[in-house]
UniProtKB/TrEMBL annotation:
InterPro entries in the cross-refs: Chl4/mis15/CENP-N (IPR007902)
Name of this chain's protein: Uncharacterized protein
Organism: Tuber aestivum (summer truffle)
Biased amino acid composition, Basic and acidic residues: 216-233
Domain of life of the source: Eukaryota
Start and end residues of each stretch annotated as Disordered: 209-233
GO biological process entries: CENP-A containing chromatin assembly; chromosome segregation
Gene3D superfamilies reported in the protein's UniProt record: 3.10.20.720
Amino acid sequence: VEHEWRDGLTLGMVAELDLRYLLDHPSCRKWASAQLYPLSNPPPTSAVSKTVFHPKIFAHTLSALLRPLVSPHYYITHHPSLPLHMLRVQLHPPTPSPPATPLTLPQSKHIFWLAFPESTDGYVFHTLPASSAISATSLPEIIRESIAIAVSRRGIRYGIRAARMSARTLEAVAYHRGGEGDGGMLGGWSIFSGGGASVDDDVLDLLPTRAPPLPREQRGEEGKAGDEQTRKRQKIAEARFGIGAKEGDGTGLESAVFALVEQFPPPRSLPAGEHQQEEGMGEEGEEFRPKIMVRLEGSHIFAGVRSLVEQGVGFDGARLPGWLTGEAGVTTGRVKGGRVK
């Protein structure tokens, strides 16, 4: 921003500086995904119930909803590299007009960003605090509910709910929620978004026919049998993860937690003569559902899983569930029947 600093800054200039900092430091804020859903069936005259986002109308409606509580300032722009409408919201306490004292910047928790994808219907990305950390009457939750009201239009009302996806960068959330224009095709399905493939093609024909060659020094150390096994694992990883889940691709997720609620085979009964059962062992015929949590942490968790599959350590790529390849597009969930719910 080119300006004479001694003359002070306008709120618009502050917003431009904040955007520049956000683009230069993508991981400075934690982003989450929320989903907009219709509260009732659309009227018969409406062909589709697709959410329609007009930045200026949305900002005007949201301002009318929040005006009794706070005085918001908006900055509307478009992301320079992603198909996203960006909306920066800065909340100030209600002030008389004209203000009696000079305007000061609010706390960082009263400044947040909203991003609306152009190519994905029903999703909004935001930097608001998590729902579990705030009460239903807190300001962030009121703003969250106001987003759904501001998007609603005559005859179609929307609600908002968490979409179980959070990441340190906007690029990662947009990639896993289809905000990059690829329709959210993850895992092995990402081969269709990489170009050169259509929906009429056979998936098996699109898989790589051969794995990339090994480095020369690695070929010298491993025998022929080990070489073939490594190439086979690389081919399986390419089929399961597609073109994604690679270190340095800018779409890394740092954490994911899954709760397994599967029914496991009952543990073996104790030998005859022992009357006490071990803790956690049910009687014969009783369902055995132990509490198991799967937590993945790292700079790029699914790239790490892919690397382990290629090395043959810990994971069998052919039997790996889809929620461990990033195909489900969520970072939290309950796994039942092999699927994330």
